């Protein structure tokens, strides 16, 4: 079709294959002129350089190189970057935002797998599944328990951050019967209560930590949220409570968390850490009441196609001149992951 804008894939080849399977490629071909055999991970490559020179759109994803001034100078026709993943902070340089280029992120599509993962972990942690599985592997078998340490009935979950993911987690938790507390300085009590039909209450961070059986973190990583959960705040958590972090590792003081978990006073499930990855033999790997997973809550495997589908819908909006649903602006960077 004549007049289609030129587009280039800038991501790892395996990511391109997962995000844009055959049917998705066929749909993209109706919207843009694109070489599906070229997935750029190095903009200095001659083939990539030639494609970049004529590109009006970049479809980016995991493995995209940084779009710095030099790259942007080599792409004089670039008008939009559509990211088939979550955060755009890793590949858009400071120079990028002075060029007037549209940006879209599929963070909205990536939020649901994270929320689903988080709620699953919370439910399993209430049954002390991770602790009991480790004890079972060591020879201890317990079919049931009447201890009040076990179970999800009557529990309170504190959600730190009414972010895109936090706003999905809250109604999921309410549907599971939890009382939910929310701490977020950017929302009002009425806005927090409107997140779900059920017991949701806005409180201060310290009150949330003192009152929750499970604390789940969904705040962005910003200078002001670095070590948001430091030694003093972790000390406020109830004995026997659980910390779940599927947001960013830097939100939690790792050394302080090791101390609190080493005492057995609190448990932790961490999908993100600081540093990331943790070095082999790190204490968090060795503690029986801590589970660490390798940053896998977001879209994986078959879920990656959902990110690609969102990106294609954004390309269609761009071609049709409709505002982008996942638009990201420079002033958004101060409040997003």
From TrEMBL:
Domain D-isomer specific 2-hydroxyacid dehydrogenase NAD-binding: 121-297
UniProt xrefs under Pfam families: 2-Hacid_dh_C
InterPro entries tied to this protein: D-isomer_2-hydroxyacid_DH (IPR050223), D-isomer_DH_CS (IPR029753), D-isomer_DH_NAD-bd (IPR006140), NAD(P)-bd_dom_sf (IPR036291)
Alphabetically ordered keywords of this record: NAD, Oxidoreductase
Keyword NADP on entry: no
Gene3D superfamilies: NAD(P)-binding Rossmann-like Domain (3.40.50.720)
This protein's record includes keyword Oxidoreductase: yes
PROSITE patterns: D_2_HYDROXYACID_DH_2 (PS00670), D_2_HYDROXYACID_DH_3 (PS00671)
Protein's name according to its UniProt entry: Hydroxyacid dehydrogenase
Organism: Catenulispora yoronensis
């Amino acid at each position: 079709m004549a007049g289609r804008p030129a587009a280039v894939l800038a991501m790892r080849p395996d990511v391109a294959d997962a995000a844009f399977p055959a049917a998705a490629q066929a749909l993209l071909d109706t919207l843009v002129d694109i070489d599906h055999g070229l997935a750029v991970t190095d903009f200095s490559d001659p083939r990539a350089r030639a494609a970049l020179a004529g590109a009006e759109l970049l479809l980016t994803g995991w493995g995209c190189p940084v779009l710095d001034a030099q790259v942007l100078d080599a792409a004089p026709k670039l008008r939009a970057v559509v990211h088939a993943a979550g955060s755009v902070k890793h590949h858009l340089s400071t120079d990028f935002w002075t060029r007037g280029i549209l940006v879209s992120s599929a963070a909205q599509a990536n939020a649901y797998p994270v929320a689903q993962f988080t709620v699953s972990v919370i439910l399993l942690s209430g049954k002390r599944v991770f602790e009991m599985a480790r004890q079972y592997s060591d020879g201890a078998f317990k079919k049931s328990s009447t201890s009040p340490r076990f179970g999800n009935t009557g529990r309170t979950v504190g959600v730190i951050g009414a972010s895109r993911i936090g706003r999905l987690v809250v109604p999921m938790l309410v549907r599971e019967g939890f009382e939910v507390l929310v701490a977020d300085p950017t929302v009002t009590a009425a806005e927090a209560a409107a997140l779900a039909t059920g017991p949701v209450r806005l409180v201060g961070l310290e009150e949330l930590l003192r009152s929750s059986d499970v604390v789940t973190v969904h705040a962005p990583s910003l200078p002001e949220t670095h070590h948001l959960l430091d030694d003093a705040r972790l000390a406020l958590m109830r004995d026997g409570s659980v910390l779940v972090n599927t947001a960013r590792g830097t939100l939690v003081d790792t050394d302080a968390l090791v101390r609190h978990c080493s005492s057995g006073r609190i448990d932790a499930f961490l999908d993100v850490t600081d540093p990331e990855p943790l070095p082999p033999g790190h204490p968090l790997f060795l503690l029986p009441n801590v589970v660490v997973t390798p940053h896998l809550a977001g879209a994986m495997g078959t879920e990656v196609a959902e990110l690609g589908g969102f990106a294609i819908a954004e390309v269609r909006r761009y071609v049709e001149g409709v505002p982008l649903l996942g638009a990201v602006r420079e002033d958004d960077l101060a409040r997003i992951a």
